[in-house]
Amino acid sequence: MPVVGAPVVEAIDLRRTYKTSTGSLKRKSLEVEAVRGVSFAIEKGELFGLLGPNGAGKTTTIKMLITLLIPTSGTARVLGLDVVKDARAVRSQIGYVFGGDRGLYERLSGLDNLRYFAELYGVEPHEQKRRIGELLEMVGLTGREKERVEGYSKGMRQRLHIARGLLHDPPVVFLDEPTIGVDPVGAREMRAMIASLTDQGKTVLLTTHYMFEADALCDRIAVIARGEVVAQGTPGALKSLVADKTVVEIEVYGVNDESIERLRRVEGVSAVSVEERDQLQLLMVQSAVGAEITPALLAQFDGAKIGRVVAREPTLEDAYISLVEGDS
Amino acid sequence: MTAGTAVLGAPRSSSLTSFFRVLFVGGIIVYRALFNWIRPAIYIPTMLGSPLFQILFFANLGKYSGVGDTNFFVVGNAVQVCSMSAIYGATMTLANERYFGTLAQLLATPANRAALFLGRTLPVIANGLLVSVFGFIVGALFLDFSMPASQIPALALVVTLTVVSCTGFGMMLGSIGIRARDVFFASNLAYFLMLLMCGVNIPIDSLPGWMQAISKALPLTHGIAAARLLASGETLGSVAGLIRTELLIGATYGFLAFALFRYFEASSRKYASLDRF
Question: Measured between alpha carbons, how far is A112 from A125 in angstroms, rounded to an integer?
């Protein structure tokens, strides 16, 4: 039975193990622990972010919450309903949006995709037309709804995914990397759309790789790494974890892996991350405030061409890097 | 505030209304989405062209070899060509959910699974029937196929039931396609297996014993036999046993198909098999 005042989404010590095998003749069984004891609670109307690198366990966690996977152990509840025992009831109360190109019927128009899912969610026939029109307007696909999805751009597909996830006006919405691969303008529009969901009273769980997105949208964030929640709190609270650090950004043209490894070993360095930017790599090196390490850093590049070097205050992204590298 | 209270939510249909809407409206929409040969440029050569030449080929081969009469080949092939839809079409309506990456979205909906499953069979049956009717028209126009006009309603009934039965078998392959990759290989195999073993062109009693045993467990076999008897003027009552057996075989495959669909759905949650492809 639902509990008064209980969180809308609740994960308690969720674990999920995958069994895989390798080899053709001599098959070898392997066990992979994708999620290792994840716990969090999301309150009504909250926009909660789940951040983590690829393979951290974000999608597996979301799949358990939306009933597509059974946890190996632990409990998860949505609106007080158990995701294993009350799977069908949970499904009717949630919307979910996966990022990426797939998951739509390519040969159908955007409108028919929505009509089909409206039927699957049991939306009343006379309500369907109004609701679909409203959602098409909201995601900016009005006028394009009769075109086949196979001709849609990535951004249009992603917007259609969002409309599909909201057809039955669910109180809880799960968004798994909804802006992935979408161009900057489209992604900005999508973020505005996501922000508006909590204004409508919905509770949202969002996974994303983009820190600025999480910083701008989320009320609270859980950082997940290697299948475990390594930190949880408001964006401000997470940033404060690296308040005693400074970040040196170095633009390098053609840096190799050995140089990066050497950087990690420089005394005072607590974390290093690399961002590929066309011809150059942007290195972000974290160290304690006041540590004069820039000359030592610049000495590690084996003659690679160095561009701009800037020291700055840490951001949420730096806090994230520090957390997932296990140095915070 | 009670956590379990859904404060939002679009008005929902009653369970019964939703069941029938998923069955009929949903079935047609999703068939258009998943049936690969729906465009006329592909439909005509595949669903009508292939059966046309199959019927012409076997009827002329029989005439040239001096075995059997034209009616034997026309009825056998005109009924068997329904499997273009009942085998391939049925496989597509389920297995393509996985190929197109829509299976996870589908399984995360609360839709009634029986409605979702059965709704896919209706357009497959209608299409199979259309192809078979086309086969009989080809026989009448090009091969001097003839039968008493009074037998047409009974023949239509038997052909419809045979298409339904064959669709049960096709849905079983489709359900396997939810879990296994390359299931269309099995569909090809099934199509030609039926051509060989169901008495389409070779009388069952001319087949080796082991093939006869398999043929008795396949759809089409009893339906084709009943259709031939009706075309030769026998009454519906005299083929009732054959019709019952055909339906029993089809229903068995149909139930097995749904059981497999539900099993693979459940196992996908347990073993994460949706993600393996």
Answer: 14
> What Å distances lie between residue B97 and B91, B94, B102, B107, B242, CA to CA?
10, 6, 5, 10, 35
Interface of B with A in 34-93 (CB under 8 A): 34, 38
Cα(A132)–Cα(A168) distance, rounded to whole angstroms? Answer: 10
φ, ψ of residue B84 in degrees (nearest 5): -55, -40
CA distance B277 to B269: 15
Mutate to test the interface with B, among A33, A44, A105, A198 (most CBs of B within 10 A): A105
Please give the CATH topology (third level) of the domain spanning A9-21+30-234: Rossmann fold (3.40.50)
User: How far does A219 lie from chain B, in Å, by closest CA?
Assistant: 19
Does residue B277 belong to any structural domain of this protein? no
Judge whether B180 and B160 are in contact, CB under 8 Å.
no
State which residues form the domain around B68: 16-271
Q: How many structural domains are present in chain B? A: 1
Of B3, B102, B270, the CB nearest to A103: B102
Per-residue tokens: B5: 């209270």
Look at A1 and B12 and tell me if their CB atoms are within 8 Å: no
Q: Does the beta carbon of A23 lie under 8 angstroms from any beta carbon of chain B?
A: no
Closest residue in B to A80 (Cα–Cα): B4
Amino acid at A85: K
User: Could you read off the pLDDT tens digit of each residue along chain A, which spans 328 residues?
Assistant: 444 568 999 999 999 998 877 777 777 888 889 999 999 999 999 999 999 888 899 999 999 999 999 999 999 999 999 999 999 999 999 999 988 778 999 999 999 999 999 999 999 999 999 999 999 999 999 999 999 999 999 889 999 999 999 999 999 999 999 888 788 888 888 899 999 999 999 999 999 888 888 999 999 999 999 999 999 999 989 888 888 888 899 999 988 888 888 888 888 888 888 888 878 889 998 888 877 888 888 888 877 888 899 888 888 888 888 888 754 4
Rounded to a whole number of angstroms, the distance between the first and last alpha carbons of chain A is 40
Grouping H, G, I as helix, E, B as strand and the rest as coil, residue A16 is: strand
* Architecture of the domain delimited by A241-324: 2-Layer Sandwich (3.30)
Domain extent listing, chain A: 9-21+30-234, 241-324
Beta-carbon pairs below 8 A across chains A and B: 143
Q: What is the DSSP code (8-state) at residue A124? A: -
Residue B13 to residue A125, Cβ atoms within 8 A: yes
pTM exceeds cut of 0.80? yes
Closest chain A residue to B103, measured at CA: A103
